[in-house]
Amino acid sequence: MKIALLGGGLAGLTCAWYLQQAGVAYDLFEADARPGGNLLSLNQPEGYLLEAGPNSLQLSPELAELFDELGLTDQVQDTAAVGQRRYVLRGGSYRELPGSPPALLASSFFSLKGKWRLLREFLKPAGAPNPDETVAAFFTRRFGSEIVDYAVNPFVAGIYAGDPAQLLLRHTFPQLAALEQAHGSVLRGLAKAGKGVGRRRVVTLQGGVQVLTDALAARLTHCHPGAPIAELARAPDGAYSFQAGGATQGPYTHLVLALPAYAAAPLLAGLFPAAAAALAAVHYPPMAVVYSAYERAAVAHPLEGFGALHPKAEGAYAAGSLWTSSLYPGRVPAGQVLFTTFVGGTQYEAAAQQPEADQKAAVHTELARFYGIAGAPTWQGRYYWPRSIPQFDAAIGPARASVEALRADGIVAVANWQAGVGVPDVVRHARTTAQALAAGAPAPAR
């Protein structure tokens, strides 16, 4: 058995690491000179350490074990304690979002009607399973439109760059659908499931999250960066070969797709046209990440929290901002604050495609209005993703099913469109897939 991993982002690197640990022959090919994909940390000469992809990581057991295996445990850095506080724009100003149902009931964030709808959820019977139910439809049915507008919508835009009216519940939050069916009430199910379970630590790595993928790439013995793949072929005995690095590579008994769906689609088109068409339909909205630094004295807001999200109902320009300097003070020059602002996603695609200068100006104008900022930014920067996060809408099910059907042909997927968009999801799925391949068992489904 010899395996080719196509794509050198976190998923491909993690899967290759565990194949290497198991003694399985493999080659990993990555088109870019820098492996790592969406885990991208940027050191600026002005003294800023920026994140273009994930800004922090939930420390799952699998991720903690991977840190330990790579010798990175002593580089784990906890997010500042103020990061437990999250804010949402409502009525033109930022208000702290309650962190639990009891806190929500005690706060003034939601109206009495909204709180009443929340309490009534305990008494609502489970609805009939609906595989096509959207996130917005589910939460509206269970909790009402106010919860959707001012809690679900900003959360989905901030984490998934998505629109809850388009994302399907069974792909985005499958555990909530299961809780409703098992317990009748989602809140009752969450209460039972949460007993004895602590909140995961939110961390980063000294030097940025890219330290993780750099460490993986440095320890792999058969990692080939700067080697785009083309001309996938299959021999009569089922073995695969392709062009990469200026030469024919192969034969390989298995292919592991660690590529974005839009990059995997053209490779599969010649051999598996139906699967290629399904993967090509997966939507990746554009996203611009705008960084704005100010002198601390110029910002009236205390910035004691993780950041602030913008519900679509508020009509803001950006999806929201992280208060980077509050979370990781050592990443900005002394006496300054830094906002990491997200412009784009499914609900903000037009803004994401504007010229860089226009985006920077619009972000500054909005920050100045909401945070009471006097004067111009000390520094601004931007990173642009033409395609950001795969959307778990009506197209993702056919894409996953099409690749599931290719297992018999020796093809499995570990990319985030299959595993889930969170770093812990990707690490867990890549690890279990590698272990299954090493054991000669069918690779696990998501």
TrEMBL record:
Keywords: Cytoplasm, FAD, Flavoprotein, Heme biosynthesis, Oxidoreductase. GO terms for cellular component: cytoplasm. Residues 10-437 form the Amine oxidase domain. GO terms for molecular function: oxygen-dependent protoporphyrinogen oxidase activity. It holds the Pfam family Amino_oxidase. It is found in: Cytoplasm. It catalyses: coproporphyrinogen III + 3 O2 = coproporphyrin III + 3 H2O2. The keyword Cytoplasm applies. Its EC number is 1.3.3.15. Gene3D superfamilies: FAD/NAD(P)-binding domain, protoporphyrinogen ix oxidase, domain 3, Protoporphyrinogen oxidase, mitochondrial, domain 2. Pathway: Porphyrin-containing compound metabolism; protoheme biosynthesis. It comes from the Bacteria. Its cofactor is FAD. GO terms for biological process: heme biosynthetic process. It is an enzyme of class 1 (oxidoreductase). Involved in coproporphyrin-dependent heme b biosynthesis. Catalyzes the oxidation of coproporphyrinogen III to coproporphyrin III. Belongs to the protoporphyrinogen/coproporphyrinogen oxidase family. Coproporphyrinogen III oxidase subfamily. This is Coproporphyrinogen III oxidase. It comes from Hymenobacter nivis. The gene is hemG.
